[in-house]
Design a protein that fits this description.
Structural class: mainly beta
Helix content: under 10%
Number of strands: 11
Distance between the termini: 37 Å
Strand content: over 45%
Order of helices and strands: EEEEEEEEEEE
Oligomer: single chain
Number of helices: 0
């Protein structure tokens, strides 16, 4: 399984960006796709995740500002980021989890999001 992320960039505070991540390869019909981020000197943290059934989970810091969605037919997950803040600056990674016990975990390459104040 390969994941290809895109959509990062530089934006001013208050602006918006949309990230996309397309998965290819042997993908099970039941899976979870998500976005994580890692700022310099910090641990990677969950931003948002969505199951193939549409169940969503968000980090408290992005609730109400970010929206995760997916297109199962295209095996693609999106992250719409609105009202961006400088503290959202990080490298954003997408991932895919699948398997009977969620034992298969795949990561995409990161995409840089920089929010200027």
């Amino acid at each position: 399984v390969q994941l290809q992320a895109s959509g990062g960039g530089l934006v001013q505070a208050g602006g918006s960006l949309r990230l996309s991540c397309a998965a290819s390869g042997r993908i099970f019909s039941s899976n979870i796709m998500g976005w994580y981020r890692q700022a310099p000197g910090q641990q990677r943290e969950l931003v948002a995740a969505i199951s193939s059934a549409g169940s969503k989970d968000y980090a408290g810091s992005v609730k109400g500002r970010f929206t995760i969605s997916r297109d199962n037919g295209k095996n693609t997950v999106y992250l719409q980021m609105n009202s961006l803040k400088p503290e959202d600056t990080a490298v954003y990674y997408c991932n895919l989890i699948q398997g009977f016990a969620n034992e298969y975990l795949y990561w995409g390459q990161g995409t840089q999001v920089t929010v200027s104040s």
